[in-house]
Amino acid sequence: MQPLRSPYNPIHIPLGLVIWSLWFVALYGGLSVGCSLAPPAPEQGQWNWLNAVLGLFSLLTMALLLWLARLFQLAARRGAQRPARSFSARLAAGVHLISAIATLFIAIPTLSLPPCV
Amino acid sequence: MSNDKTDKALDPDQLHDQFNDVWGNPRGWKALTIVNHSTIGIRFMLTGLGFFLFGGLLAMLVRTQLAIPGYEFLEPDMYNQIFTMHGTVMMFLFAVPMMEGLAVYLIPKMLGARDLVFPRLSALGYWCYLFGGLILCASLLLGIAPKAGWFMYTPLSSAVHTPGPNSDFWLIGITFVEISAVSAGVELVVSILRTRGEGMSLNKMPIYAWYILVMAMMIVVGFPPLILGSILLELERAMGLPFFEVARGGDPILWQHLFWLFGHPEVYIIFLPAAGIVSTLLPVFCQRPLVGYRWVVLAILTTGFISFGLWVHHMFTVGIPQLAQAFFSAASMLVAVPTGIQVFAWIATLWLGRPQYHVPMLWLVGFLIIFVCGGLTGVMLALVPFDWQVHDTHFVVAHMHYVLVGGMFFPLLAGIYYWLPHFSGRMPSARLGKWGFWLVFIGFNVTFLIMHWTGLMGMPRRIYTYEAGLGWDLPNLVSSIGSFIMAMGIATILLDIVLHFRFGQPAPKNPWKADTMEWATSLPPCPYNFVSLAKVTERHPLWENPDLPESIARGEHALTVIDHGRRETWGVEPLTGKVREIIHLPGNSWLPFIASLLIAVVCLGLLSKFYWVSLVATIAALVVLFRWSWENGAHPNAAPDAKVQPGEPPLHSRTCDGPGLWGMGVTLLANGALYLALLFGWFYLWTVSPNWLVPDAPVIDQRLLLACGVLLAIAVLWQRPVLKRLSKGQGEPRTLLTCFVGIASIGLLQSALLLWALLGGDLAPRATAHDAVIVVLLVYSLVHCLLAAILSVLQALRVHHGYVCVQTPYEPLVVEQLWQYNLVVLWITYCSVVLFPPTFGGA
Question: pTM above the 0.80 mark?
Fold first, then answer.
């Protein structure tokens, strides 16, 4: 069994989507709690503190996912001699990349819609 | 570890006789003890077929009632029961168990293994499914079936609006059936990761196994929210704890969240294994590998996760902020992308191959057409304004049937026709098979294509009848006629399958020239699948080595010695498929049957309100389950003799990383999903419940809860170094005994403190949802802590009997995971119940 920190440990294959899931729950939960505690005025439209926080959080998550995708891509190149390792790392890189794209796509509405209406 | 024995002259017939002595299935009453995956898988599928026919009959009744306006074929109350039961039976008793049954049957064979890793769990799952399904269906025959729709929305399903046992049958029956789903999920995950053939690395794994791995993980994480919701709603109905009642601080929308947290992934839990059938069959009928294997794996994983982010799209009309709706709308559109990747991979495989149009291919092409249409209407429904227009109309019913029938039933039929030789040793008939397909295909489209228009014209779902002149008369009549054509098609298929057992041509070896290992068995297969376990280093083993079935049958590969009387298969490293240990499997046993029978008595006691019967049956079931756990490892009924052949790895029970560790880990994942759903409910109600009632002062003694957390931490910290030494082959039995007795005592003391906190506080669980949730959180921890304490007592007894020692260090490591889980859960509960409220305006 590969050590947990090794990029070839198969537990990392779904890691990107696990991060995406946590981000998604935090996004929806953060929106709900924000609207419950201190809802921005509707006339502010989409430019308000809550959308800014959610948007920034999404950008940071996307950046983390892209960075991890790059790490796993490099690991896949290093492990190219061993097909199982290369497969695992390349799959993990793909999962992180897709998760980053999913994060961006789902967060785009924060640029166009008010949060609590 | 390929232990090729070409140099040894083994008599294959003698070898097979020896294997049959150990693996053979008993007949008569003792057939109830069978735990073998082939038998259990077939039982799942036959039972699923029975429930399918029952659910189909209900659909016919619904379509008859709706055929003409103002028809009085059924009473309104009976109509409500019938449509509710149709959806419930098809989703919970047919679609999921059928796919699980097929996977239970196929996965070990495809992986080159002899059985699933927890055979007794397979059997328990089957009996829970059967008994739960029968209890549920019996309610309809008694005229007291659930009638609030298959998603049981509150407040309609609550005691006020649905008095009587109708909703209870759903809540208790479905929870019972879900024991089966979750147990199969756990078993499939561990089997796929740990019991593959030697050398079968992840990149060489059959694509079907990837689909089942993701489906099983989705079950493990996706079903617990519904189990929790069902428990909460049943507590509300039976004991008056108001989780979903606004007046006392609950919220009916919480039920919708819990239901759809399960409900949307459920669609993909059904679709993914069906897509796995497609990805397995298409390459065979095109005689070329699947195009884009890695892309398809990526798509499966992505679908599995993103499908959890869609649940709110079933709730677009309940009044959620637009931005939140936009998040879920975007996620709903996004999930079409990985599905699209698979569709393009299938088209490319067809394009590049030389397709042969046997009957299974007809069903695959039918699937592609219908499922793509269903997927497109799904994207339409993901758009919020469109969803608002057609919500709760027949458009949604049509979409759902396109996705579920197209996405599950058509591939299932393709798979059944393809694997028929496995069950009968005979080939299906092309003529009747084609008639069956075309009748179903035409009947289905006549029924449901038209239904899109009926919905667009505004006809709501679930109505008992309608007035003439609304424009719905003709489309409803056409849909009803179509449904009867479809029923004729299904009757034709059944006739074909029955007749083929008598008149079908005997199947040759590997009749479709397939690439996967399930065709390396005899037809029908022996209970042990393979008499010798071959090394599998290619993704398409039978294309690379067509003689593999013969060499396996001649016993030329590994693990052929069976005079020890153990059922064995390889345990492998998850990534590379390198052999690490020999996994010894339990044989036939009455325990799963008895345990499930007792759980059925628990359910019947709850339904009939004879709670003392349930209590007695619960205790009896626990005794049986503890006996089950006793017959493991070095126990005389398991593997008292640890001898293996020279050069072979050790038995798993003599290592520190057997499948039980993985099984416990995955089970705790399911358990954690249930706990997180409960925690979600707590925070959800704090945040949005319209009438959330918070007491002025703390309702429990917070010091007691703190003391529980500290005691639990002491127990966990005490056993860690002891078990670490045990893993390294050190540790006197006396030290172990002291440790287990000590931590069991701490566990019992801590459970007593929890009980004190629960009973000694000012909790009023019937008065407010706030207190009701706290009670459930505390009871959850109490049950788990008691369980951990009892398991540690058992470990102490096993040390005393010599079943646990430095040579057999495995079991305490399994139990330790539960202690660690309990510690984390209790501290999260402490933070949520004690530390969080003051920060959010509570006491």
Answer: yes
